[in-house]
Amino acid sequence: MTPIRRAVALSTVSRLSSLSRQRLTVRSQSLSAAISQFHAYSTSRPLRQQAFHSQLENAPNAADLLSSLDAASAAAPSTPQTLTEKIVQRYSVGLAPGKKVKSGDYVTLQPAQCMTHDNSWPVALKMMSIGATQIKNPSQITLDHDVQNKSEANLRKMRQIEEFAGKHGTAFYPAGRGIGHQIMIEEGYAWPGTLAVASDSHSNIYGGIGCLGTPVVRTDAASIWSTGRTWWQIPPIAKITFTGLLPPGVTGKDVIVALCGLFNKDEVLNHAIEFAGSEQTMRSIPIDDRLAISNMSTEFGSIVGSRSIPFSPLQLTELGGIVPR
């Protein structure tokens, strides 16, 4: 399967935003430098089990799967890792000596941070149902929740979450402290070059500051709570390169809506998306707009659980004094 690589002119987005019904067109780029950059981020390994949402359905015999992975590794040419793969490499545990992870690999992840919002109590129930009695690493967990629902059932759930957080010593953010994803970024839990997960489909927002963000289901979150780890399959990786400068009056929301119109046939379904561009181009996109682009990459066609990966380059001074946890 040929890796998806697209160059998108930000000036095209400007024309689209001024003509709401105009169809976005992207001209093919012939710049040799851009093409060589694309190839540097591509992987030629065949992608296995394309439907990542049904990994456990029709699974091949384990021995056959392992031998096929070994054969693919031996036959694969040596290619540089993508940014996604490099970050996953850093947070994978139990790898064989010298193993370099690639798209399609199954890995055991030990993420730097795990956030849950109003799913926190159901996750706690999941954790207790598997026999776990304590959180493996309280500093790895951040809890947030629904704050507008004033029903007795929701208020009771909020009390249970707060009591659970107090018992286990996890970071807890009560009503009025902010939305979970914003807390993760503003409080330094999500940080450039790290891996953070959350029980929410828009966890890819962390890609806006160069943090690999990916959603997890409640069972996976419970696994992280109790063991610090979960399993993951590295998804196919698509690269989108922005060219030019973000025009005045155009926002990150305009850019991502235009991209949703471009990728409207599930071309990047369940992909990791790596946004790139020159330093001048990326500096023209403010961090709040980068966050909007990353957050809404979930909406590519029928996509769920996309992985939006770092804008680069990113100067840490742009983070306004935020320090990592």
TrEMBL record:
It comes from the Eukaryota. The keyword DNA repair does not apply. Pfam families: Aconitase. Residues 86-305 form the Aconitase/3-isopropylmalate dehydratase large subunit alpha/beta/alpha domain. Keywords: Iron, Iron-sulfur, Lyase, Metal-binding. InterPro entries: Acnase/IPM_dHydase_lsu_aba_1/3 (IPR015931), Acoase/IPM_deHydtase_lsu_aba (IPR001030), Aconitase_4Fe-4S_dom (IPR036008), IPM_dehydratase_rel_enz (IPR050067). GO terms for biological process: oxoacid metabolic process. GO terms for molecular function: iron-sulfur cluster binding; lyase activity; metal ion binding. Transmembrane segments: none annotated. This is Homoaconitase, mitochondrial.
